[in-house]
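Project outcomes to date are best conveyed with an example. Our students and postdoctoral researchers have been running inverse folding experiments weekly, and each run begins with a structure described purely in tokens. The record below, which covers 203 residues, was selected by the lab manager from last quarter's runs and is presented without edits.
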């Protein structure tokens, strides 16, 4: 999977188009407060954009919406359907990711055969309410080391308030990629390309 994972906010369609133009290959449509019909219409437009750039589209939370628009996968929070339930609905060829905050969370998700884990938050972020305890670099080092020692190799993405100056140290903890939102939202294509190239050279 790609090292850089964009999670949408703000003007979702515009920002997703910009990151696609900037070379980002993994995108999550994260819409929390729109009615289902509006979400569906937005997701169809986003899917069309992502397809035109060869970008993998993940839908946040909503398994049914992911299926309806034929997105490549879904990302599940702790209060959403379980990965096993999502797999039954979406089938074996879709990507299923899920959120974790602890080593125990990771092991449980690996047991449910997720395709990747979004581990965080790294630090405080305004893009998510009801944050789990912050991990910081030390938390990532500890959890990734335990996963390695016990032979687990499911891809792990760091998430939550990540800035450019954090990235190099985060990759040294053995993560597979970083998931970011605010750092790319509203940026120019040139800025996004520069950041994407920087991430590609890390790790």
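After processing, the design step wrote out the following sequence:
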């Amino acid at each position: 999977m790609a090292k850089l994972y964009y999670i949408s906010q703000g003007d979702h369609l515009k920002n997703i188009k910009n990151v696609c133009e900037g070379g980002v290959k993994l995108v999550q449509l994260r819409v929390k407060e729109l009615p289902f019909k509006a979400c569906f219409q937005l997701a169809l437009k986003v899917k069309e954009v992502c397809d035109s750039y060869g970008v993998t589209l993940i839908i946040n939370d909503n398994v049914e919406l992911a299926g309806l628009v034929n997105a490549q996968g879904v990302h599940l929070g702790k209060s959403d359907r379980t990965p096993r339930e999502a797999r039954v609905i979406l089938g074996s060829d879709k990507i299923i990711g899920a959120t974790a905050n602890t080593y125990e969370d990771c092991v449980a998700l690996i047991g449910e055969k997720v395709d990747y884990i979004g581990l965080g938050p790294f630090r405080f972020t305004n893009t998510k309410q009801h944050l789990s305890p912050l991990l910081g670099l030390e938390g990532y080092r500890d959890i990734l080391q335990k996963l390695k020692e016990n032979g687990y190799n499911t891809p792990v993405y760091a998430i939550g308030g990540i800035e450019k100056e954090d990235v190099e140290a985060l990759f040294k903890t053995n993560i597979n990629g970083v998931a970011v939102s605010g750092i790319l939202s509203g940026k120019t294509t040139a800025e996004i390309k520069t950041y994407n190239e920087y991430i590609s050279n890390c790790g």
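The helical segments are 12-21, 36-53, 63-68, 83-90, 103-111, 136-149, 164-171, 189-200. The longest helix spans residues 36-53. The training component of this project remains on track.
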